[in-house]
Amino acid sequence: MEDPNNPSKETLEKWSKDPNNWIWGMFYFNPKDKRFFPPKKKEWMGWTVNFANRKSVLFFIGMLLFFLFVTFTILRKN
User: Fold this and answer.
1) What transmembrane ranges does the database entry give (predicted)?
2) What predicted TM-score, i.e. pTM, was given to this entire model?
3) 48-75 confidence digits (pLDDT tens)
4) Where are any strands of DSSP class E within 1-78?
């Protein structure tokens, strides 16, 4: 039996290619996958957020708020 905290490379690839783990074909949602940023469907395109992982979503929101704060600060000084 495979360790759920350390899945094999084949399992990770199977999860990535499974259309049931993609909402509208662009949002990755897999509660079994514990990675923060799994690769996109086409790995050369980079990474995406696993929206089933709470820590991943919180990190994503934190990054978004940080960039909004920086943008707001820059625009406010002009």
Assistant:
1) 57-75
2) 0.73
3) 899 999 999 999 999 999 999 999 999 9
4) 22-23, 27-28
Pairing of strands 22-23, 27-28: antiparallel
What was the pLDDT predicted at 41?
78
Both tokens assigned to 7: 């899945």
Distance CA 56, CA 48 (A): 10
Specify whether the CB–CB gap between 28 and 48 falls below 8 A: yes
Rounded to whole angstroms, the maximal C-alpha distance in the chain is: 60
CA distances from 72 to 17, 68, 69, 78 (A): 38, 6, 5, 10
Segment 25-38, tens digit of pLDDT: 888 999 998 888 88
Provide the terminal-to-terminal Cα distance of the chain, rounded to the nearest Å.
60
Distance CA 46, CA 13 (A): 15
